[in-house]
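Predict the assembly for these three chains.
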Amino acid sequence: MPEGTGIGVSVKRREDARFLMGDGTYTDDINRHGQTHAIMVRSPHAHAKIKKIDQSKAKGMPGVVAIFTGEDMKVGGLPCGWLIKNQDGSNMVEPPHPVIAQEFVRHVGDIVAVVIAGTKEQAREAAEALNIDYGVMPAAVSLKEAVKPGSPQVWEQAKGNICYDWGLGDKAATDAAFAKAHKVAKIDLVNNRLIPNAMEPRAAIGDFDRATGDYTLYTTSQNPHVIRLLMGAFVLSIPESKLRIVAPDVGGGFGSKIFHYAEEAIVTWAAGQLKKPIKWTADRSESFMSDAHGRDHVSHAELAMDKDGKFLGLRVETLANMGAYLSTFSTCVPTYLYATLLAGVYTTPAIFCNVKAVFTNTVPVDAYRGAGRPEATFLIERLVDIAAREMKMDPAEIRRKNFIQPSQFPYQTPVALQYDTGNYDATLDMAMKMIDYKGFPARKAAAAAKGKLRGIGMSCYIEACGIAPSAVVGSLGARAGLYECANVRVHPTGSVSVFTGSHQHGQGHETTFAQVVSERLGLPLEQIDIVHGDTAKVPFGMGTYGSRSIAVGGAALMKALDKIITKGKKIAAHLMEASEKDVEFKDGKFTVAGTDKAKTFGEVALTAYVPHNYPITELEPGLEEQAFYDPLNFTYPSGCYIAEVEIDKETGTIEIARFVASDDFGKIINPMIVEGQVHGGIAQGVGQALLETCVYGKDGQLLTGSYNDYCMPRADDFPNFEVQHSDKPTPCTHNPLGVKGCGEAGAIGSPPAIMNAICDAVGAVHMDMPATNEKIWRAANAHMARAAE
Amino acid sequence: MYNFEYQKAGSVADAAKAATGEAKIVAGGMTLIPTLKLRLASPSKLVDLGGIKDLVGIKAEGGGVTIGAMTTHAAVANSADVKKAIPALADLAEGIGDPAVRNRGTIGGSVANNDPAADYPAACVALGATIVTNKRKVAADDFFKGLFETALEEGEIVTAISFPAPEKAAYQKFRNPASRYALVGVFVAKTKAGVRVAVTGAGEGGVFRKKSFEAALDKSFAAASLDGIKVDAKGLNSDIHASADYRAHIISVMAKRAVAAAK
Amino acid sequence: MPTTVSMTVNGKKVSGSAEPRTLLVQFIRETLGLTGTHVGCDTSQCGACVVHIDGKSVKSCTILAAQAEGSDVLTIEGVAKDGKLHPMQEAFREHHGLQCGFCTPGMVMSALDLVKHNKNPSEQQIRDWLEGNICRCTGYHNIVKAIAAGAKAMA
């Protein structure tokens, strides 16, 4: 392997130069000849009947090419990717999800019409000239209100606004555990609704080739093949062979760009109708009311313990907001990505979780960085802290007492997952050492001397990455497979193009995937090209989400590389007149054991394409291989985060004094990139804990519809994060790279660490997120009042 | 944005003549352009003061400073004259928006716009500034009339703001974590004529003076003088970012901190 | 009515047609085809559109093209010379100060303006300076490191 380009090296990113020089190509940077512009006309009401759309004035306005409403665009609805069964075995309520609203609008921002014109401003002006007569209806907005008897109904067929009533675990065994409990810790919590806010607003360009009848959609997507499948098969009935999806450089996703959105279908369909390219780019205000939101749970949970603080049972009741329609993966987030994680890193033997998914007149809610796992982790790790208080035990001690031990793997949890490996004491030890846990009382006293309240809080998270295997998720209601595909094309002169279904939008695959190839084939990075994001180039792919790229896409790449080496050995054996079984491949060279015979990878590649001296009767020419990899299990990264905060009692302002992270991601391809992923995840988690929340008014108006009101974390909101990888890592046991995935860990592990630290500082049992200055101030005052008594 | 005519004024007189009817004046544009982008205003014409050199600059005079209306926040923040005469004013300017906003945003624009969460109105009121227009001079106390309302008449343009130097002063801002505007901003100035305390960000009607604080501080200019003086939450904003009660409390805290920090 | 707007961009004199309402960022991206300057919000907060006008950082989404008439504009495309990264850009690469790359041009332009004012900024000064630049990927940690290193490299 060339020096310093293989697995485990912090190779500088190959994609950076283009981004740093302004040479990236994001969707909005693309312009097609003869392009027109679309403006989506959106509902100003949370719930209304569309009585009449008067286009007479708008139609004749300058530049207007077409106006389409739900009446014009009668196509398939946007599909939901996962069918959840109710506890009684019946199916969830799955209402239609029209691309353009049909008869009713169900959230502010719901698309009512599209106006297409020569320029964006012309389209906007015509859009404003549409005269839409709405019959405003009462709206179900908050979770708690929506499930109350007599609440307005989002969908007639969903009684009480319930989409499904689902359960996981053994209820009887859990009840029995509570019956013998020494103590029970309880919590009522809200997991605050978030708006993902990737910095690049969504955009889509539909294009149609009259000559071939081919459609092309350029879109801000994390998974172009998924969009092709969903839009082609379910919405527009365009065969895959006539539909190309290009997701070029994408400016962050965090889940919000997984889903198939209406605007994609609209511009593609309208391009076919008008035979013109059509571009749509969201303004940020539009993103706020049309990108899928995240989280939004209301939960009650109880933890039963014996007299030693050993966990006996956990029961959880959760209401999960779906919004007005079922977005692509909305239904699996609060079920199979949430309740399955409720064992956490603990041996709790009996768990039962009931989740009721609820329709509201709000933007659809779907996966956002962590998707279900942050909600589970927040609930467990807050509850465990409350349990420690109840038991008068140190938070670290009660965790250790209940950790699954290294000797117990593979460990079957009571909530369906089987963890393959882990070492939770190792990351806890490391984080406690990093922060000098023992020194905390002295630091608290020093803070108190300055009039500040100092608190410390920890969180021991586990997550499940690379959702799989297909057969299992299929049996649970998934309507897709969850494998990944890689194609490795070795060119005649020995350079390599890798076509991967894993899409990168910040993760650095162009570097890390190339490192895997460099390691395996012994090639310098300059000879390796990583191609992604275009269905016309990449054979197939399920895309990037759930921290799956390296664990699933990387494994598929390894499989394809193995096939390349196997074929290369056959060619080399022929060239060196040796037996195939004697040929070895290492550092880019094929050699024959026990001899000095050698052929370089380049020589073998050339031979494959210039097969003059070639075993032609046994082997086809060419050197290109493809592999699909369907994992045997999830991967299970885990770790421990500890936060130390200092609070100004007078104002409730909070400073994060330290934040330390110790993660076990198994084997690591590029430590620099992994640390960067953790930093970003922590920032989003701290954002959830302290700053961010989506607020709707009672009438369903979005009150946090811009950065003036939705608080995006800034540089001065954070300290430096101290991030280290476990000194006793536990590589994944079932994928060829031993990797686990690292994209979401930070967002999963950090909110409870911060909130535990705040509750510690102000002596509160619980505080809902975000912990605003005012909330902290009130809690600190209550604390001081209690102390004074 | 709705379309409009654009005119770059060569002089204040030109601008005043052009700025009639549905026309709007643009100074730095840091508030007006975002407003136009969101289609919340549809002026027939934009009259740009950006080319009028006379409106830019800082003059030290009579111990105080006179700042041209088109002087940017960055220029005020970095001005040796301002730092010397009224360091609190330079600090305030340094805390407005972000660096790119400070490079475009102007004192005249901020004062004429009178955003209820803007910083400059508090400085003007507390320091007893005089707002100079093309027609007259207006005392700050008479200039700010409520939310986005000022004493400016049609065709009247702010040309400069004159700040007398206080004996000491400080501004303390408690920021809205999202917008970074003042959730509460308190400017305290100890002047020859007495102590003046102006509060921005918190009031339903924009900037206001806190007379009870002034009276207490006139007796003794010390943070402790404000102990026990209750701030009534009535008339204060209450929104998704903070309750009126909290704002009332923060007014006290910021005022005390400003007194302690005054120089 | 569209008029002709002229200015110097990255050292070259350019002119193009613009409506009065055309923003500088639209002129740069759509008329000049320089798409390295991005638009991430509509409330002048995210900073993805930061360029320099007459040597100072400005949000190009909050100034009309007409207001920039006659000025000297530097965009991200003008920072590297002869295809070689500027030391500040190199520092971002070296310290992994970017992930998706969308906020990056604005970050670099703001960083360059900071160094003009402060040749050796502290961590806190860098964090404060970035108030008007939002990044969703990096948690700012490596951006702050990169800017400190970039400033040193420029000294």
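Residues 22 and 245 of chain A are 24 Å apart (CA to CA). The longest helix of chain A spans residues 549-575.
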